[in-house]
Amino acid sequence: MKAIVIEKAGPPEVLQIKEWPTPEAKPGWVLIRVRAFGLNRSELFTRQGHSPSVKFPRVLGIECVGEVEAAPGGELEPGQKCAAVMGNMGREYDGGYAEYALVPAAHVLPVATNLDWPTFAAVPESFLTAWGALVDSLDIQPGQTLLVRGGTSSVGMAAITIAKDRGLTVAATTRNAAKADALRANGADHVVIDDGAIAGRVREIVPDGVDQVLELVGAATLRDSFRAAKAPKGAVCFAGILGNSWVVERFEPLVYMSSGQILTPYGTHVLNRDNATAPLQQILAAVAAGRYRVNLDRVFPFGEIVAAHRYMEENRATGKVVVKVEG
Questions:
Q1: What residue spans define the domains of the chain?
Q2: pLDDT tens for residues 76-117?
Q3: The pTM is what?
Q4: What are phi and psi of 140, to 5 degrees?
């Protein structure tokens, strides 16, 4: 099979298309014929050398969509459409950047959908992250106000469309004023240009502060996000690192947070077939019905993976970047 292999960390050019052994199906694992896969910043970080636990050579890719080729354990039927997410794909074992991927059965989600492969591929990681953060961690409710910090990311765009469908008023941020119209087109009620200190401007829109904040930029803006949140009872969900840092230096809760505020994390490492299949099926149905908007920014062919990674690294996308596997 053809696979995109990285033998050492570096710039996009380290991603090489090679003939690679097709994985052999085995009990407890599912062999997937990959039709398309979304790109994720965690793959960019691994490629750059920021994942010390990852051993090279490695086929990257923390998600993919396709069809079940074989499932020796009987968990799924051959030909079943499916998505594979997380479970250390592309890190402890080869991931979705290939014509075939062998994935633990617990991380393969069987679904029914008539969406085309690129649209389907734009959904799993971004929408399940947004769903987990908003529905499971923050428990958003109609009538609330939500700030999506990092709104033009694929997760941010997914979060906006989910929140608007559930009846929230949404403010979203971008560092690039040229992307403001895309946020509005996606349903954002208010757009804030993010220079790292936006709490004052958010409170001009919502004087008491927003009910909920989805923090996708990360550690660099966390304190300012708390200042934008209602006190007491405002909640911030830390679910991304667009700012390239997980660690808050000298974190002082009594300084960062007002009494009664809540900090909750959300990470997709918790996703598996048991807890994510039903939400993914609901999301795909909402996309098909036109309730959720899939912001598929650009589809690259398999042979242009270097250009696709460069496009992601340069922050040119507004929404999801997908690679289609030919054949």
A1: 2-122+295-324, 126-268
A2: 999 999 999 988 999 999 999 999 999 999 999 999 999 999
A3: 0.95
A4: -60, 150
